[in-house]
Amino acid sequence: MRQILNGSEIVIECLKEQGVDTVFGYPGGAILNIYDELYKHSGEIHHILTSHEQGAAHAADGYARATGKVGVCVATSGPGATNLVTGLATAYMDSIPVVAITANVGVSLLGKDSFQEIDIKGVTMPITKHNYIVKDIEKLADTIRDAFRIAQSGRKGPVLIDVTKDVTAAKTYFESVKPVKIHPVCDTIRERSMKEASEVLRTAKRPYILLGGGCVLSDASEQVREFVKKVDAPVCDTLMGKGVFPGDDPLYTGMLGMHGTKASNIGVSEADVLIAIGCRFSDRVYGNAKTFAKNAKIIQIDIDPAEINKNIMVDISIVGDIKAVLTIFNKRIKEQHHPEWIQHVQALKEKYPLTYHQDQLSGPGVIEKIYDMTKGDAIITTEVGQHQMWAAQFYKYTRPRQFLTSGGLGTMGYGLGAAIGAKIGCPDKVVVNIAGDGCFRMNMNEIATATRSEVPVIEVVINNHVLGMVRQWQNLFYGKRYSATTLNDKVDFVKLAEAMGARASRVTNMEEFEKAFGEALSCGEPYLIDCIIDSDDKVWPMVAPGDSIDEAFTEEDLAAKE
Asked: Which fold has domain 191-351?
């Protein structure tokens, strides 16, 4: 039905067109008209008032990662818009579909350094897939529709729409339309490359499969699992690829790279074929580019041609949607068998298991206990640092969208906002954010968001009173010069959380943690657990910067050298 609506009404109607049920944001002067309209439609679109716009961006990101839908955040002009920047950059680096709607001053005030004016389109150009400023009411509806289409199509990513305040009040004709169907990218899949890859796979003696975040974004988990069984190859993954292949499957060998398992790092270095699926070859994955997978022909499958031969030179590339490519492969390739190679890799797993000190409370011990008590079914979000690596190593993820973390940008302060977004998107799932004490303080005010909106997330703070990962590097490579990494604050996280309306406990041993986490699971309220661990616990194994991944070393290796 064709009707006359103002800009704010058009924004809301377009969001409803796209099936948006939740937006995360913070109001202000320039965006008041849109917030007034949100108020009128509160029964259809749920607005979560965060404590900071960065929290809104991370919540939209977590919602998108957990559900596979587009996350939406809104902010006012000036500092409201710029506070979204870190969250948008986080989503951009990990290819997460987010639409950010900001408001700006009226057209007549643009370019005059008006109050709370900023060129947010210019600011966010390098960290969005696309962005717009809408200065004409006639273009508003189509711009919003285009933004959602772009965010979801091809390699996904964030899109920003900046709308001037006068456009939010202006009126024009509006007619609702059905959202365009997003088709997978298939026209770039080349038959020649498929044939070459099939032949290489057929003759492989020591194949290895590396899974990245592209598999999650393509919803290709089922196709990946069929492919693995057909090729009969061991599987490793990146930080972003967790859960695509079950972490408890015998063929799974753990994460690859700087803090990957020795089994994966050595296995990939010995492989004669490496199939990298939806992986962009981050520097944290390949270590030394010249020696990475030095014995292997490398097949890279990715939706983005820009990622081919960017960091690692490959022998065969296939550009296209992961699910589409693997569907073709699974029809073509015959079941293979590599019993000796599988046995060899299994022996590496047994020889080099992940270990940790079990005589005291530790990050890995906490993660394993969370895994046991949630029966491996929780959604885990993290901040960035040692706790992030432990969460990747010691929780066995069995499905995609179960592990949400900032992989590319490495954003401290990401996890709590993301946990809130994930819990709203998946209310029936237990959602646990694993944080370090340094990270927690970045955006700890979002505990107030969780209590205000009654979002029962569990915040587990691995508290070592230092910036753990930076301290680890200072310990190993900087002569134990702990520059600005020793926190030793007098901040009481339990009192802080309680002051913001959450329940909280401090624990110093595993018995206390088990009791507190049990309470957190059953109470139905936001709950913080402050876990006191040793300042010098480290993440093992580790690959030194610039070294080959097969030179990964552990605490035991280090002691043997001394």
From this structure: Rossmann fold (3.40.50)
